[in-house]
Fold these 2 entries.
Entry 1:
Amino acid sequence: MGRVILVAGVSRYLGGRFARILTADPAVSRVIGVDVVPPPHDIGDADFVRADIRNPVIAKVIARAAVDTVVHMNVIATPTGAGGRVSMKEINVIGTMQLLAACQKSPSVKRLVVKSTSAVYGSSPRDPALFTEDATAKVLPYSGWGKDSIEVEAYVRGFSRRRPEVSVVMLRLANFVGPRVSTALTEYFSLPVLPTALGFDPRMQFIQEDDGLEALRIAATGEMSGVINVAGSGVITLSQAARIAGRPTVPVPLPLSGVFAQIANQAGLGDFSQDLLRFLAFGRGLDTTRMHSVLGFTPRYTSREAFEDFITYRHLQGPLSRDAVKATEAMLRGWAAPAARGS
């Protein structure tokens, strides 16, 4: 008898793809996808149940199906994808609390996998070269996805203490890139001109979307437990990424980046959160020793190859036309000038 796996967050791209991957795994007998809206994409042979993890009804879904493995992929990264910051916070934190409460009540649940993020380490000039899983943020994320993910992990640790017989895995994944995945960072690199922090060239690590989903599959069907960093090997600097994408850059003084971000968000250029701005200034590096030794996983793509794959499939290679570059640079400088006068 194979595993019965519940995937929370199945209506988003990664959750839907993950459910479809699980249905093809011979070690899995049934997959149940849960979300508040029907998935707009193919989820294979997975059964979809319309349910909100913020509602205690999720406990009934787990009980009726005798779920033994729960994969929590319902932590939202951007406010625009949740209908605003308040709704995002409710889904991420309150939803996690309710889901864990349902798992705690269920005698059938034996395994919990949480898709977390390397954003819990924050980004600061005092960071180590590589964060191990035992390290903590030098400067805690104080807003958005990073802050929510720290709270989510705290609730998961509390659950693990209350149900020590349940195997718990938290994967702290580097930034996803790939042909179809959409994140605040992929939106940033899709801009015709990249605003950067003046005087900074951060190191970045990525995980290609297929590799990230494979890591989650191994975690869901395996026996390991604990916190595990997941990232492609090596690093790539922001200036290298800009050259690969053929994108010109416009340096913005770091003290003005917050004002610039507000203007850029209002103009619909992307989701420039404070955490993203700090990442674009200071970067982040992950130690992936446990990924190899505990998870038993080696990504097919290095960080550079993952980024190149994203650029190739999105047809983002430059250079852009001179007119397009000049027009965009003038627009960005036009926004930055009033911000500088008002600072």
Note: Residues 3-177+208-231+287-299 form a domain with the Rossmann fold fold (CATH 3.40.50.720).
Entry 2:
Amino acid sequence: MPFTLDRIEALAPDQASLAAARKLLKPAFWPTLAEGEGLIWGECQGSGATPYRVAVSEADAGYKCTCPSRKFPCKHTLALMWMRADRSATFAPAPVPEWVKDWLSRRRGTSSSPGKPKEDSKPKTQPSIRLTDKAETEVTDPKAEQRAAAARERNRLDREAAVLAGLDDLDIWLADQCQHGMANFVAQAAQSCRTISQRLVDAKAPGLAGRLDALPTRLFTLPGPVRPTAAIRELGQIHLICQAYRRAAHIPELLAADARQAMGWSITREALLSDSDGLRADAIWRVFAVISEAQPDRLRRVETWLWRANGTDQLLSCAVLIDFVPLAGGAATSGYVVGDEVDAELCFYRSTIPLRAQIATLKKGATQSSEPFNLPAEPLGVSYAQYEDALGTLPWLGAFPLAFCSATLRRSGNRLFLHDDQNKLSLPLTSSQSDEALPLASVDHIDGIGLWNGYEFTLAWAETPLGRWLRT
């Protein structure tokens, strides 16, 4: 059944969703638009770090979008239907991609053929919604804008004062933990960190609160003997963040920006893209890892790690796109999967170690590539030395990508270690990979890439004489 404006009107949850969908009707928002087997699909660059993937069945108006919206259908789905209805964009014939097939296989109550409508598939009756021909004109009141700007400045100053007061309380808490000893801290970390993290939430420092909230989990994933030492390191990093934040006017600008981001001051996508001094990299990127982690604040943090497939800029050879989606109903992963190739210009957040980025311009939608991974021909020891340099620049550095060649996987007891014989370096693999990575111990050498968090290495991608290995 072809889409019409009346049908879209009946499907829309409200007028606001239609108005939002109207703004997405420009083809520039959609680097990928395709059709096949009674389906249409596309990728839309939204406010998140990764584009949203949208698929719609023309037969029964079934739909799927990876955005976290709680309106159904969302504005991206409505916009895709709208462009199909008024023929304002070209949908290129193409084979149905795997992510669309996966959605089809999980649809409840649908037939195996997407082109056959269900007998009772009818749009739900909705209140009449008027599709206006012209967008409403926004009226700007200069005095109202001045009042709003003054209110924003007052809110900023109030928050600055609240954060500093919270840091004073944190100093006392840190001193207490040191006085009681790290062994005692590790035993009571869950309750102790929960108390101070709640105080930091009240102090409007959510970034630091989240770091403390996650600290007990990070400690208890490590072997028991190293936990006290790890606790000293983690609390030391928190202390350094506090000091850097207080001394922002007296330290390098980029380090001050790192401290503010660690504290929880957010930067909007619009502000990031409008930063004329921001670093940008226009390249083809390969997705080598997608990591999803549930947070205590009922959000899921999804990291999409990219490796630059072309170009020689070592400073911007790797990037991470970070999205936050609700745990309830949110996607468990981003719109990308490991092995995707993306042609895009990335804009990096201001940092002494630029890793986090947003997609500024998506030139071509993601496609799976079987080409060999373009990894640097250097041993693990060289990449690890780069990590140590980065840690010296940014002491609270988190996960860091390490690419390597000609390494071996060795076993000691129940642990696996990535070994560089040339530089006499061994890094322990995360304990969760003990079984899945064990077959790699039987090959002569591996080239690959993964993430090092200062304690354990998560192997993400490996090229071996027997073929490619990917983290599951």
Note: Residues 142-263 form one domain.
